[in-house]
Design goal:
10 helices; Methane Monooxygenase Hydroxylase, Chain G, domain 1; single chain; alpha+beta; Hypothetical protein YwqG fold; globular; 19% strand
């Protein structure tokens, strides 16, 4: 690489950093490093310094955002005028982990990430639909990273990798039993040595690092739980939830789902058991059994539409990976059910 090339790359990266365009600056630094030769010692050092500066700025920006989120939640809590709405929010709050995208990934290191090549065992067989079409790899969660958050200790394995796949072409909604093969969730325990897959099958998702911040979650205003609120309290609760979360996209691990079309755990129970909706409607005993089982379901992972990682679920929709609480406790991810909702 010529000195002039290096200077242009370095200056471009500095300009992007000064403008706050951190992702562009990071890409400039990485691109420059790939072009360096053995004799480019000074240039290589300058680009490493630029990369370090950018990564420091990214971390600084994330800290600032986290402080802003905390302050915003405090303000929202103070503005809840209705005692009933406040009590409802406090009673039903659940901790969750927001997944944030960071445009950085060090080769050879096993991270939580969106897209790219999943870290899998050597004998891993890529999941496919019945017609042989491969599913897309959406994301993986390094559970050792999640274990840093105390509330997750009782809910998720302490270590290992959790990987999520989905048919991003047909985008099954999960409303029918036949959709079952349209997604897969794999848990690779720590003792199962995993390495990045040598090939990517199915429509590829661009790779980005994922990191987590803790965030309280609340029942969505259109969730059936809110029906117990009086109208005035319901309006106040609606205003509270409208601003209690950081801005979209809402990628969330555990906690309450953010709904678009209403509750869906009943749909999970019926479709996962292969029951016809009409049978539930016509059989009171079966309907009562289904309702009792609905309470066993909980959110595992919510993924929002997000252009940065080519997530587009219908019209600005979301997909929700749901699991029975008992299965979650036993680290059994074989019957995770997916629901897709869009506007």
């Amino acid at each position: 690489m010529s000195v002039e090339q290096a200077r242009q790359i370095f200056q471009s990266g500095q300009r992007a950093l000064g403008a706050g365009e951190l992702a562009e600056a990071l890409e400039q630094a990485k691109h420059g490093l790939t072009l360096c030769h053995a004799g480019d010692g000074d240039v290589h050092a300058a680009l490493l310094d630029l990369q370090a500066d950018v990564e420091a700025e990214i971390k600084k920006a994330e800290r600032s955002k986290a402080e802003g989120r905390a302050a915003s939640r405090v303000i929202k809590e103070l503005t809840v005028n209705s005692a009933a709405a406040k009590q409802f929010a406090e009673k039903h709050a659940r901790p969750s982990l927001r997944m944030h995208i960071e445009p950085s990934l060090d080769a050879g290191t096993i991270y939580s990430q969106f897209g790219g090549a999943p870290a899998v065992p050597k004998d891993f067989v890529w999941p496919k639909r019945e017609d042989g079409r491969a599913l897309s790899f959406l994301c993986q969660i390094n559970l050792a990273e999640v274990h840093n958050f105390t509330f997750a200790h009782a809910l998720l394995p302490k270590s290992g990798m959790l990987s999520f796949f989905y048919d991003t072409e047909d985008m099954p909604s999960g409303l029918d039993a036949g959709d079952r093969h349209g997604w897969c969730v794999y848990y690779f325990a720590k003792q199962m040595k995993v390495t990045p897959s040598e090939k990517i099958e199915g429509p590829a998702i661009p790779v980005n690092l994922a990191h987590f911040t803790i965030e309280p979650s609340y029942p969505d205003p259109i969730a059936s739980q809110t029906e117990q609120l009086e109208e005035e309290a319901c309006d106040d609760y609606d205003r509270f939830t409208d601003g209690c979360y950081e801005d979209a996209p809402y990628h969330r691990l555990l906690g309450h789902p953010q709904l678009i079309l209403g509750d869906f755990f009943e749909e999970c129970e019926i479709a996962s058991r292969g029951i016809e909706w009409q049978h539930v409607h016509d059989d009171e005993e079966l309907a009562a059994e289904v309702q009792a089982c609905v309470k066993k379901w909980t959110l595992l992972l919510q993924l929002d539409s997000d252009d940065r990682v080519d997530f587009s679920w219908g019209d600005r929709g979301m997909i929700y990976f749901c699991i029975e609480e008992d299965a979650l406790r036993h680290q059994d991810f074989s019957n995770v059910w997916l629901i897709m909702q869009c506007r």
